[in-house]
Design brief:
Layout: H1 2-33, H2 40-73, H3 85-114
Helix pairs in contact: 1-2, 1-3, 2-3
């Protein structure tokens, strides 16, 4: 369940990041045309949402790191289905890489926002 939850949260994160990028494009266009748009509230709200989603991703990865080793000790996962430990470990590694990218994006956007 944590694996699926991670990808659902990741989907929400990417969607919010896309909304943030769209808002940046609108602001850039307004600056080019000389139209003044106060979009600071939009950026603050989206940045906060991205931060919360990043924290949720981090929590899910942390939970999986703690629970996965004990799941490997249970040979049939309760459903007579054998776990493929190398594949799940590889998936967790990829999830950690996604988390690093999410953290980097949130940091970069916060730095841009501070400018």
């Amino acid at each position: 369940k944590e694996f699926i939850d991670f990808f659902e949260v990741l989907h929400s994160f990417v969607k919010k990041a896309s909304e943030y990028a769209d808002a940046m494009e609108i602001e850039t266009q307004s600056l080019r045309t000389g139209t003044v748009i106060d979009s600071s509230d939009v950026f603050d709200t989206l940045a906060s949402s991205l931060g919360d989603l990043k924290d949720s991703l981090k929590s899910k990865v942390s939970t999986l790191e703690k629970e996965l080793p004990s799941a490997f000790l249970e040979p049939n996962f309760g459903f007579a289905i054998k776990l493929d430990a190398p594949s799940l470990s590889g998936l967790l590694t990829e999830m950690k890489a996604c988390l690093v990218q999410a953290e980097t994006l949130v940091f970069a956007l916060s730095e841009i926002g501070d400018q």
